[in-house]
Amino acid sequence: MTDARTEQLREALAATRARIDAACLSSGRDPDGVTLVVVTKTWPAADIARLASLGVRDVGENRDQEARAKAAELPDLRWHFIGQIQTNKAASVASYADLVHAVDRLSLVTALDKGAARAGRIVDCLAEVNLDDPADGSAAGRGGVRPEHAGEIADAIAAAPHLRLRGVMGVAPLGGDAAEAFGVLAATGADLRARHPEADLMSAGMSGDLEQAVAAGATHLRVGSAILGSRPPLG
Ligand SMILES: *Cc1c(COP(=O)(O)O)cnc(C)c1O
């Protein structure tokens, strides 16, 4: 496809890759160690096909129904499920997701494992770590386990026969210090690797804070609006 939208995406993708390369250069990292996951939630499958034609292989979604339909249409991409998962949607997510980023409770581990078994798949998972300040009431209800409880969820994922523990994921607190939050996430990941050496991935950083995430050691960046534009409001 070579329409105007494709050209717009090509430019935005190049600008984002340039930001990632610059961040890698200033922290002495190899850009090959950083995977750009393009967050395509709310955008049509046609945009994902355009991104694929521009070399994008990893895409992220946060709603099961939407993700499932898009993954069925474009099965050759790597599908990242980056959102909170209701337990009754877990089996569906496990049937198409290649990496589930936000695993934050034992009931979800059980449900994902069952779904993966039923689909005959092994699904890679990250433990979501809540990086909000516990004293900040406005953060209540956001996903993730406190850093001190990440080990419990990680052990449960590692023990599930159809799941594979691959690391940690976090979202910087709204209006907070992203560099500090990602430092906590990196330290939590390093702790887990003492028992689970295969848990070597760190998903952190979005359009506004990808530089801080690269500096802290992120292996996966989840970037939406910087590439696709600002999302239309959910109806
Ligand atoms: C939407 C979303 C992103 C992408 O955010 P942008 O600011 O659009 O880059 C990243 N991570 C999660 C968990 C999201 O829900």
In terms of DSSP E residues, the strand content is 15-25%
Low-confidence stretches: none
Order of helices and strands: HEHEHEHEHEHEHEHEH
- DSSP, total strands: 8
Q: Biggest β-sheet: count, sense, barrel?
A: 8 strands, parallel
Bound molecules: pyridoxal-5'-phosphate
Give the radius of gyration. 17 Å
Strand numbers in spatial order across the main sheet: 7-6-5-4-3-2-1-8
Number of helices: 9
Residue-averaged pLDDT, rounded?
95
Based on Cα principal axes, name the global outline.
globular
Kindly state the percentage of residues in helix: 40-55%
End-to-end C-alpha gap: 29 Å
Main structural class: alpha/beta
Report on this structure.
The structure is a single chain. This protein is α/β, with parallel strands linked by helices and 235 residues long. Helices cover 43% and strands 16% of the residues. An 8-stranded parallel β-sheet has the order 7-6-5-4-3-2-1-8. The chain is globular, with a radius of gyration of 17 Å. The mean pLDDT is 95. Residues 39, 41, 62, 82-83, 171, 206-208, 222-226 line the site of pyridoxal-5'-phosphate.
Helices and strands in order, then pairings?
Elements: H1 4-26, E1 35-39, H2 45-53, E2 58-61, H3 64-73, E3 78-81, H4 90-96, E4 99-103, H5 106-119, E5 123-128, H6 150-159, E6 163-169, H7 178-195, E7 201-203, H8 210-216, E8 220-223, H9 225-228
Parallel strand pairs: 1-2, 1-8, 2-3, 3-4, 4-5, 5-6, 6-7
Helix pairs in contact: 1-8, 4-5, 7-8
The protein binds pyridoxal-5'-phosphate.
